TrEMBL record:
It holds the Pfam family Polyketide_cyc2. InterPro entries: Polyketide_cyclase/dehydratase, START-like_dom_sf. It comes from the Bacteria. Gene3D superfamilies: 3.30.530.20. SUPFAM superfamilies: Bet v1-like (SSF55961). This is Cyclase.
C-alpha cells in the first residue's frame, strides 16, 4: 500500500539584487523553474498554471519514482510576493507555498516557505526507512535551487 511523505521547508537568504529584480525572476515561473535542479519538464497549463515533471528520485543506487504535480501561481507586485497552490488531481504530489521579498540594507531579503505531500508508490512498511531519505533529497534540491537563484541574482 502506498504511503505519503510530507515535507515542510522554510528558507531565507539575502542578495545584493534589488527587490524588483528578485520579484521579476521569481514571478516568471518558467525562468525561476529553470534554476530548480532535476526538472525534466515544465508544462504550461494556461492561466499561470504549470505541471512540474521531475527526474526520478534516486537514493543510493536505487531509483524510486518520478514526481509530478501542478500548481497555480499568483504574483503580487505591491506585496512583493509570489505564491502557488496545488491543482487537485494532477500527478502524485501536492505542493503549495510562496516567496516573500523585502528590501534589506544592502539589497533584498528573500523568504521561501513551501509544503509538499508526495505519494510514494511502494509498500507501506518501507515508509519508516524511506521518508527521511526522501525528505533529505527534496531539501537538498531546494538548497541547490536557492544557491542557483543567488548566483542568478548576483549576475544580474
Amino acid at each position: 500500500m502506498p504511503f505519503t511523505v510530507t515535507i515542510d521547508v522554510s528558507k531565507q537568504f539575502e542578495t545584493s539584487a534589488s527587490p524588483e529584480q528578485v520579484f521579476e525572476l521569481l514571478a516568471d515561473v518558467p525562468r525561476s523553474a529553470s534554476h530548480f535542479p532535476d526538472v525534466e519538464k515544465l508544462e504550461p497549463l494556461g492561466g499561470n498554471t504549470f505541471r512540474w515533471i521531475t527526474e526520478r528520485i534516486a537514493i543510493g543506487d536505487h531509483t524510486l519514482q518520478q514526481t509530478i504535480y501542478a500548481c497555480a501561481y499568483r504574483s503580487d507586485r505591491a506585496a512583493m510576493s509570489v505564491s502557488w497552490t496545488p491543482v487537485e488531481g494532477e500527478g502524485n504530489a501536492r505542493v503549495e507555498g510562496g516567496w516573500r521579498i523585502e528590501p534589506a540594507r544592502t539589497g533584498t531579503k528573500v523568504q521561501l516557505h513551501t509544503k509538499g505531500a508526495l505519494e510514494v508508490d511502494l509498500p507501506g512498511f518501507l515508509q519508516f526507512l524511506l521518508s527521511p531519505l526522501i525528505e533529505l533529497a527534496f531539501t537538498q534540491k531546494i538548497d541547490r535551487y536557492i544557491s542557483n537563484l543567488q548566483e542568478a541574482f548576483e549576475k544580474g
